[in-house]
Amino acid sequence: MIKTFLRTAGFGLLFVFFACNLTQNSTEEKQIIIPPTKKIEIAKATLNESSVKEGLDFLASNDLMGRNTGSKGIEKAAVYIEGILERNNIKPYFATYRDSFTVKDATGYNIVGLAEGTDPVLKNEFLIISAHYDHIGLISPIANDSIANGANDNAAGSVAVLELAKYFGAAPKNKRSILFVFLSAEEKGLFGSKHLAKRLKDENLDLYVNFNIEMIGVPMVGKDHKAYLTGYEESNLADKFNEYSNEKVLGFLPKAKEFDLFRRSDNYSFYKEFNVPAQTISTFDFTNYNYYHQVQDEADKLDIPFMIDLIEAIIPGIYTMANTPTKEIKLN
User: Residue 227 contacts by C-beta under 8 Å, 6 or more apart in sequence?
Assistant: First the structure.
């Protein structure tokens, strides 16, 4: 009986051994090797320094009187922005470039341009690249100057969005659609972005990411990244963006979290309406610029070569977001 048991057990073990080998071989034969995601290649963009300077000089000029929402000065800014969009093949998203709203008895205009996506499916998904182009107008004079020109805040961000619009408008290169948005009444309480975000949500826009640009006129001090991202921990945007750019473009600034900057710029309106990654990049680190909301915030205070370097550095990240097959940027 013991022999029978051993013989039976031996056959059983032998069967198990061969069965295991068969299973292993079968698994090995059927195993599928998934190749790594192919990196989307993009040639380095080169911006025109005179174009950046011209934009800053105009938007921060005394002639625009500080670009207060509802003023003649911001009307001039709107016409200037519309002209650049039109000349660079960025179409109006609505019937015209203007998304109008009323705030505190004044009429405000968001400017919304479209670079339609080239892919028949992905073009129904949108990126919003935005900056506010308003400022606070006239304030208490210093040395007979009462114009708060708003060069860093936020002619700098507006010029960046204009340069990005020129880049993507030059030739179709984005599978997803991109809205280039210039927001008004940010200084009055984010009224422009609140209005536009609600309008787009009501129209069922499929928003992927809002990439907002604010105060990028001077470099940060002692950082290993070019700009910081507000709400850094809210999504994987910084990590993926740096991966796309192949350099550390975006990083974390403790002061941004301490002062809750995530909820204090226009990105927050899109975050609230759409519940998608909607964040702001900036280089104002509370130590590197002393003229916030002052008459001295003028174009000659800004570092144009730095601005050009930063704008060129963010192009690969935006290009890749506009062209990946799936939505890789996600909320945490």
Answer: 216, 220, 249, 250, 251, 281, 282, 283, 310, 314
Contact 225, 249 (CB under 8 A): yes
Taking a C-beta distance cutoff of 8 angstroms, is the pair 195, 181 a contact?
no
Torsion of CA 187, 188, 190, 194, to 10 degrees: -150
Judge whether 304 and 216 are in contact, CB under 8 Å. no
Closest alpha carbon to 253 in 237, 221, 229, 269: 229
Domains of the chain: 51-321 (3.40.630.10)
Report how far apart the first and last C-alpha atoms of the chain are (Å, whole number). 64
Least Cα distance to 197 among 280, 278, 78, 107 occurs for: 278
Residues 53 and 302: beta-carbon distance below 8 Å: no
pLDDT for position 172: 85
Q: What distances in angstroms separate CA 64 from CA 56, 109, 137, one per listed residue?
A: 12, 15, 9
Q: Provide the pLDDT for residue 39.
A: 74
Let me know: does 317 contact 246? Beta carbons within 8 Å. no
Spans of the chain below 50 pLDDT: 1-36
Instruction: Quick: pLDDT tens for 112-149.
Output: 999 999 999 999 999 999 999 999 999 999 999 999 99
Stated pTM of the model: 0.88
User: Dihedral sign, CA of 207, 312, 173, 247?
Assistant: negative
Nearest Cα neighbor of 280 from 288, 292, 268 is 268
Q: What pLDDT was estimated at residue 41?
A: 81
pLDDT in tens, 298-330: 999 999 999 999 999 999 999 999 999 999 999
The DSSP bridge pattern shows strands 177-183 and 91-92 to be: unpaired
Give me Rg for the CA atoms of the chain.
Answer: 26
